[in-house]
Amino acid sequence: MAKIDGSLYLRQQQTDRGSTNATLGKDDFMRILMTQLQNQDPLNPMQDKEFISQMTSFSSLEQMMNMSSAMEKFTQAQSMAPVVEYSSMIGREVTFQNIDSETGEPTGQEEGIVQAVSQKDGRIQLEVEDGSVVNVEQILKVSNANSDL
């Protein structure tokens, strides 16, 4: 009779799941499948249908993980799109509402030529020629910088 490895007992397994993901990944699934194949009864092996079903499940899991990874990359690429969209404002003259930093109330209007576009905390900001930073929500008017020509 074969001796059972003590590390395979459930009480020997790591029980702290607080820091790890509670879902099974494709590596976990493959380990389970390999362990099942290694420990199956040689006189009553796994049926072909069962094996094909498990391999199909593994293939589906892998495809879902690939799709999830692709969607994550797509989402990251889309987060930079607003910066590119507003980059056409560089060199344009903008009229913007000044906002008091303490009260959040409008204090007047200013004009400036946009020098740069950036994104901070999910908000698009324009840097005008005097160095001030303006959120796009504060923009009241956009015009050509040399409209007097």
List the helices and strands and how they pair.
Elements: H1 26-38, H2 48-79, H3 81-86, E1 92-99, E2 106-120, E3 123-128, E4 133-135, E5 139-144
CATH architectural name of the largest domain:
Roll
Class by alpha and beta content: alpha+beta
The CATH topology of the largest domain is given as SH3 type barrels
Mean pLDDT, as a whole number?
Answer: 78
* Pattern of helices and strands: HHHEEEEE
Shape: rod-shaped
Query: What is the name of the CATH class of the largest domain?
Result: Mainly Beta
Q: Largest beta sheet, briefly? A: 5 strands, antiparallel
Low-confidence stretches: none
Number of helices: 3
Helix content: 25-40%
Task: Report strand %.
Answer: 25-35%
- How far apart the termini lie comes to 96 Å
Number-wise, the strands total: 5
Radius of gyration: 30 Å
Main β-sheet, spatial strand arrangement: 4-3-2-1-5
Number of domains: 2
Domain FlgD Tudor-like: 87-139
Family: Belongs to the FlgD family.
Pfam families: FlgD, FLgD_tudor
Keywords: Bacterial flagellum biogenesis, Cell projection, Cilium, Flagellum
